[in-house]
Specification:
The complex is a heterodimer of chains A (about 200) and B (about 130).
Chain A: E1 5-12, H1 20-42, H2 47-60, E2 80-86, E3 91-98, H3 104-114, E4 119-121, H4 122-132, H5 145-156, E5 161-162, E6 164-165, H6 173-180, E7 185-186, E8 189-190, E9 195-196
Parallel strand pairs in A: 3-4
Antiparallel strand pairs in A: 2-3, 6-9, 7-8
Chain B: E1 2-7, E2 13-19, E3 22-23, E4 40-42, E5 46-52, H1 54-60, H2 62-73, H3 77-87, E6 95-101, E7 106-110, E8 115-121, E9 126-129
Helix pairs in contact in B: 2-3
The chains are: A alpha+beta (about 200), B alpha+beta (about 130).
Chain lengths: ~200, ~130
């Protein structure tokens, strides 16, 4: 009999001036999801079921860039993607271009388990979601004020940014405070315009 | 981007990653998260989930490379993660990843200035962190 282990992440690349309350918010969500995964492992759920369970929880909370809280395309739309992989048999399922499926990772699991393929995208993936009866939401569900602000600032910065929250002007002291220092650059814009993902 | 990697008491590994991608991305852009071997990978040996600049992770086939250097170079999990983050990301590529092995080990690595992460093992180790 082996030993279980679990790891989860909420995105890489953070603004060094990240306000403490946002760090705490993120840590609390990570702790909640970690404990969810640990109790599932102690109840002998399989690794595959546990990774799906934990990522669903992370998708449902708007704090990180996935599911509800996914960042926006240049057109202000949401295009989510996800994948899941089962190590022993090296089976996998993946989806891209989703805009109404509440939990993309669960649709990826269904692609793996219930379709003859491994990867479905855009309208085909949405059609498969309807057939499988997964929970689907209005597009507005995924779009948060934070993301609208981030997109606006990314456009002003003429940049494409990864996994960062850009504080809406005046919202975070980090923006103002950081502006006085000579900014490190990331993705072509001063790091100071970012706030953590 | 969010991700989770797990090994259960039967030694089975699994990985999952989910994302909205890049802010202000072009419509139709596909990142690393759904691409097996780049943003997500699991085999008998280990499971990996990546986050960061998708195009760099895709070019570096980051997730599969962790498994490959364990398999072919005999590196241990954390050594494999450190090697891949250091050697497989092209100039300026920024990424982070989490990994578990079928021996019940956890590891992570990143060359950004932080990564939201949480790790735990059956031995009682637990860490929730943001920075280095």
């Amino acid at each position: 009999m082996g030993k279980w282990a679990i790891a989860l992440h909420g995105g890489a690349g953070l603004d060094p001036h990240l306000p403490l309350h946002r760090q705490e918010e993120a840590k609390n969500l990570l702790a909640h999801c970690l404990n969810l995964g640990i109790s599932a492992l102690r109840s002998n759920l399989s690794a595959l079921d546990v990774v799906e369970l934990v990522v669903r929880e992370l998708e449902t909370d708007p704090l990180f860039n996935s599911g509800r809280g996914a960042v926006l395309t240049e057109k202000g739309t949401v295009e989510m993607e996800a994948s899941i992989m089962d190590g022993p048999k090296r089976r996998f399922g993946a989806v891209s271009g989703l805009s109404t499926v509440k939990n993309p990772v669960s649709l990826a699991r269904l692609v793996m388990d219930k379709s003859p393929h491994s990867y479905l995208a855009f309208s085909g993936a949405e059609e498969f979601a309807q057939q499988q009866g997964v929970e689907m939401m209005e597009k507005e569900y995924f779009i948060t004020q934070d993301n609208v602000g981030m997109l606006k600032q990314a456009k002003e910065a003429k940049a494409i940014l990864f996994d960062y929250r850009i504080p809406t002007t005046g919202l975070d002291s980090c923006g103002a405070e950081a502006e006085n220092e000579n900014p490190m650059m990331m993705n072509g814009v001063p790091l100071s315009v970012y706030a953590a993902e | 981007t969010v991700g989770c990697v797990v090994v259960d008491i039967e030694g089975r590994c699994a990985a999952a990653t989910s994302t909205g991608g890049l802010i202000n991305k072009m419509v139709g852009r596909i990142g690393d998260s759904p691409i097996i071997g780049s943003g997500t990978y699991a085999c008998k040996l280990c499971a990996i989930s990546c986050t960061g600049e998708g195009e760099s992770i895709l070019r570096g086939t980051l997730a599969r490379d962790v498994a490959a250097v364990m398999e072919y170079k005999g590196l241990k999990l954390q050594e494999a993660v450190d090697f891949v983050i250091k050697e497989r990301l092209d100039d300026g590529g920024k990424a982070g990843l989490i990994a578990v092995s079928n021996l019940g080990e956890v590891a992570f690595g990143f060359n950004t200035n932080g990564m939201f992460r949480a790790t735990a093992t059956q031995d009682g180790f637990m860490e929730i962190a943001v920075w280095e």
